[in-house]
Specification:
heterodimer, A: 527 residues, mainly alpha, 19 helices, 2 strands, globular, B: 118 residues, 3 helices, elongated, transmembrane (chain B), ubiquinone (chain B), NUOK/Mnh_C1-like (chain B), CPA3_antiporter_subunitC (chain B)
């Protein structure tokens, strides 16, 4: 039993109160500790990912209570990859927030950021459904604080919607957990996997309700149409680095769907018959279409990016809903890609807002630092729209390949390809309005703007002017990761295939968690 | 007993859903509280209804009630209490800031406002 696996949860959980208590008035010290914490997280996650890369499953029993009774934290290939992705993303987001001075615009940014990381990492690592609920709440309550960071009426209004929608989601989650507990008498995922398989075909009503409720909850997190209404305004109004971090939060929903529906409710069970091909797949296709139409229709750059997140989640869920090892492997590749691409886009939105003062898609005089921002936007848009050569193209290719020969293949291919075209149009329109047409309007008298705007006063915005170098570096760093994700696509995809194979053979997960010394009883027959 | 608990959960959920759909902050928050009450009772019932039985091992007692749902309910109560407090504060802030307590989007498209440091 390795103790390191609890560290990604404990470290931010200790760091956050420390930052609040000891470094409340010193942003400099907060920054140092926050960045150091995230660097340590990257190290730990990389170590854990390396440790389980041979297909083993590591676990930690909290308080050393045996598995079905105590809470376990479990790491396998999937969860360690997700925590590595989260901590790497967090580093760049944090650097951007520091570079753009977001942490000075309100209080407790770094503490909330650490709590948010704790919730996300915990949700990826936990092996207990109720604990998953608790970590969802931790990440949500931190995200409420981050979402309204720096205040402002529009942000508060969007915050109310965001909080209420997620509260309803949490209530549904509790209802689902209650029904699962009533049907099986356990909430440990490995134990549930064994007990659900024992439920006879004529007694599946209760557990079926629970399975559908759980899928609804995770679909809310993953912003699946028609449960996506919370996403556009909250992501658009949230501070940009926070929105970039939120790019991983929709993936928490996708992760939970993969985890729960490969382990507890595998697709060959009659409990879940029809759940994926009849419900999830069409809904995911609609999300993909709606997201990309939203990209085309958006009036503001931040909304455009928010809709592209919905579209990319649709893409991920299409691939998950196929529920074949190839589909899951493609989905995992695409999850990494869309997290990075979405985050880069949100950071670019922040660069545009800093340079230009507004993110309306209307023609305005050139912004400060136009060339570099435009370049970053161009690359990120290529990645998100799925044009070659970046990883979005490869990801879509993998999804299309996984969908080849399935019943809904015509629909999947048509919508994936059609929505890609629509999103290319949307991004091209936004880019040309923001960056090219800017040169066709004359600057107004009081806005004596120059092309690179180093006078820093070409907008009403008090902090207009070229964004700081650190902000650019962080955005560029994420983009470099995206390029690496493309260059090493073969290796990454090979690893996601291994991951999917591990997910579809959950016996080692179950036996590692349950068959440990100190286990008190064998699961009862049914209930 | 079962009928009483089940109908209480049902009525509270229905009333909560109705209030949540009212689109103004105050009824929505009230509705959320009703929903969390309903879910708390529901979690309690998920461990089967047992009357007058202790949850913890004791000498000379043969029937016990399931202790786990009680622990779950306790967690759920704490979390929902905290969440309600948070949503009241954010809702109050939004209402005082914009003098409007609708939870849906503002009807007129807003022009984007500059980030004002608070």
């Amino acid at each position: 039993m390795t103790h390191w696996i609890i560290a990604p949860i404990v470290l931010p959980a200790m760091l956050a109160p420390f930052i609040v208590l000891a470094a409340r008035y010193h942003v400099g010290i907060q920054r140092v500790f926050s960045v150091a914490g995230v660097l340590a997280l990257i190290g730990i996650s990389a170590g854990l990912a390396w440790q389980v890369s041979d297909g083993s499953v590591i676990y930690y029993r909290l308080g050393d209570w045996a598995a079905p009774f105590g809470i376990v934290v479990v790491g396998d290939r999937l969860s360690t990859l997700m925590i590595l992705l989260t901590s790497v993303l967090a580093l760049f987001v944090l650097l951007h927030a520091i570079g753009a001075d977001w942490d000075r615009r309100g209080r407790h940014f770094h503490a909330l950021f650490q709590f948010q990381l704790m919730g996300i990492l915990g949700a990826f690592l936990t092996g207990d459904l109720f604990n998953l609920f608790v970590f969802f709440e931790v990440l949500l309550i931190a995200s409420y604080g981050l979402m309204i960071h720096a205040g402002g009426n529009a942000r508060l209004r969007a915050g109310v919607q965001y909080v209420l929608f997620n509260l309803i989601g949490s209530t549904l989650f509790l209802f689902a957990l209650g029904s699962i507990y009533a049907e099986t008498g356990t909430l440990n995922m490995a134990d549930l996997a064994q007990r659900v398989a024992l439920i006879g075909p004529e007694e599946t009503v209760g557990i079926r309700v629970a399975a559908v409720l759980l899928l609804l909850v995770f679909a809310i997190k993953a912003a699946l149409v028609p449960l996506h209404f919370w996403l556009p305004s909250s992501y658009a109004e949230a501070p940009a680095p926070v929105a970039a971090l939120f790019a991983i939060m929709t993936k928490v929903g996708a992760y939970a769907i993969i985890r729960v529906y490969t382990l507890i409710f595998p697709p060959d069970l009659d409990v879940t018959a029809g759940l994926f091909d009849l419900w999830l797949l069409p809904a995911a296709l609609v999300s993909l279409a709606i997201g990309m139409i939203g990209v085309l229709a958006a009036q503001r750059l931040d909304r455009l990016v928010a809709y592209s997140i919905i579209g990319s989640m649709g893409m991920v869920l299409v691939s998950i809903a196929l529920f074949t090892p190839e589909g899951i492997a493609a989905a995992l590749y695409y999850i990494v890609h869309s997290t990075l691409a979405g985050a880069v886009l949100f950071l670019v939105v922040d660069l545009v807002r800093t340079g230009r003062g507004s993110v309306e898609l209307t023609t305005q005089p050139p912004m400060a630092g136009t060339a570099l921002t435009a370049g970053l936007f161009f690359l990120a848009a290529i990645a998100m729209a799925g044009l070659p050569p970046l990883s979005g193209f490869l990801g879509k290719l993998l999804v299309l390949d996984a969908a080849y020969g399935t019943d809904l293949m015509t629909w999947i291919w048509a919508i994936v390809l059609g929505s890609s075209l629509v999103s290319i149009l949307g991004f091209a329109r936004a880019g040309s309005v923001l960056f090219w047409k800017a040169h066709s309007v004359a600057p107004t008298e009081e806005e004596e703007s120059t092309k690179d705007g180093d006078d820093g006063g070409d907008e009403d915005e008090p902090d207009a002017g070229a964004p700081s170098r650190l902000a650019y570096a962080a955005t560029g760093g994420l983009l470099a990761l995206l390029v690496a994700h493309t260059v090493f696509a073969g290796q990454v995809h090979g690893y996601t295939i291994d991951m999917a194979a591990q997910l579809f053979a959950p016996d080692s997960y179950i036996s590692t968690v349950l068959d440990t010394p100190g286990k008190l009883s064998a699961p009862k027959e049914g209930n | 007993m079962e009928l009483l608990v089940a109908s209480a959960i049902g009525v509270m959920t229905a009333a909560g859903m109705y209030l949540v759909l009212r689109l103004r902050t105050f009824p929505v928050i009230l509705g959320m509280s009703l929903l969390t009450y309903a879910v708390n009772v529901f979690l309690f019932a998920s461990g089967r209804l047992t009357i007058g039985a202790p949850p913890i091992l004791r000498d000379g007692v043969t029937t016990y009630t399931d202790p786990l749902p009680q622990a779950l309910v306790l967690t759920a109560i704490v979390i929902s209490f905290g969440m309600t407090a948070v949503v009241v504060m954010i809702g109050l802030g939004a209402y005082l800031g914009s003098d409007d307590d609708h939870v849906d989007d503002a009807p007129v498209p807003r022009t984007s406002e500059p980030e004002d440091p608070a």
